[in-house]
Task: structure prediction
Amino acid sequence: MQSAAGSANEAHPLFGGALSAVIPHSATDISELREIPDNQEVFAHAHTDQSLIVELVEYQGQVADQDAARYHFEDIAGSNKALEPGAFEVTSVVALPKSELSLSECSTAWMLTGTQSVSKFNEEARNSVTIHLGLFRLPQFSTDVLITFNDPQSISPESSSACAVGTHQQPWMVKDFQRLVQTLTLHNPGLFG
Result:
């Protein structure tokens, strides 16, 4: 299977080249393996249970910029069936300076770190996953761009992911996620319709 990323600093085309970003080493493009929604680009680490998702979602105008990352994090928690008390927690939300970003079209950008207790494929077993979320707000395109880095911290022995434990061959680090966030670049605004 081909790695989706070329050299460590080479931008990878996303959404047919409308966007690009530096994708970390050992990334597999999941769309080569299964159907992925048109509004997502999904990458999985070849040897760990880590994943990265770049997603275009509807701009939530009713949500203040400083609350938007938490809004999307809670939306992900709902999708992960991790909304019960204690199943998710936000540990930090910080504004990203636009001077450090390639996506100059965003009105604001945010990074959130939190944890969720997540089961895979509707299994009973729950895994503790640190979620790093990058959010770019693009009100002029009625779009929020989310970049989600799922970094499992503890895997239940009953989980289908248990086989990936112990094979940590150069797992992705937060700096790999930050490089992806910082290098996200818009090439074709027609992507937003």
